[in-house]
Amino acid sequence: MFAMPLYEVRYHGKKEWEVISELKLMDGLSEIFKKVTPAIEVMIMGREVQTPDAIYRLKEKGGEMI
């Protein structure tokens, strides 16, 4: 068993991080990047990905056991 990763987004001008689905992450990143895999690799390495509208990151702790 393993935990599914959770992603977070913080839109510019807001202080709170919002947990988002992987589908919403892909949708947001695909608007900016031709290939989203390199951006996801950046998040897996513990860094944030910035876009003109938001900042995306992998949630530090989270996920659901399946």
What does this structure look like?
The chain contains two helices and four strands. The chain has 66 residues and is an alpha+beta fold. It has one domain (7-58). The longest helix is centred in the middle third of the chain and has 9 residues, at 22-30. The mean pLDDT is 88.
Secondary structure layout plus pairing:
Elements: E1 7-11, E2 18-20, H1 22-30, H2 37-44, E3 49-50, E4 54-58
Antiparallel strand pairs: 1-2, 1-4, 3-4
List keywords for this structure.
4-stranded antiparallel beta sheet, 23% strand, 4 strands, globular, 66 residues, 2 helices, alpha+beta
Strand order across the largest sheet: 2-1-4-3
Poorly predicted ranges (pLDDT <50, ≥5 residues)? none
In this structure, how is the largest beta sheet organized? 4 strands, antiparallel
Rg from alpha-carbon coordinates = 12 Å
Give, in order, the helices and strands: EEHHEE
Percent of residues in β-strands: 15-25%
Question: What is the number of E strands?
Answer: 4
Write down the overall mean pLDDT: 88
Amount of helix: 25-40%
- Helix/strand structural class: alpha+beta
Tell me the overall shape: globular
Give the termini distance in whole angstroms: 6 Å
**With helices defined by DSSP (H or I, 4 residues minimum), what is the helix count?**
2
Task: Estimate nothing, just give the exact number of structural domains.
Answer: 1
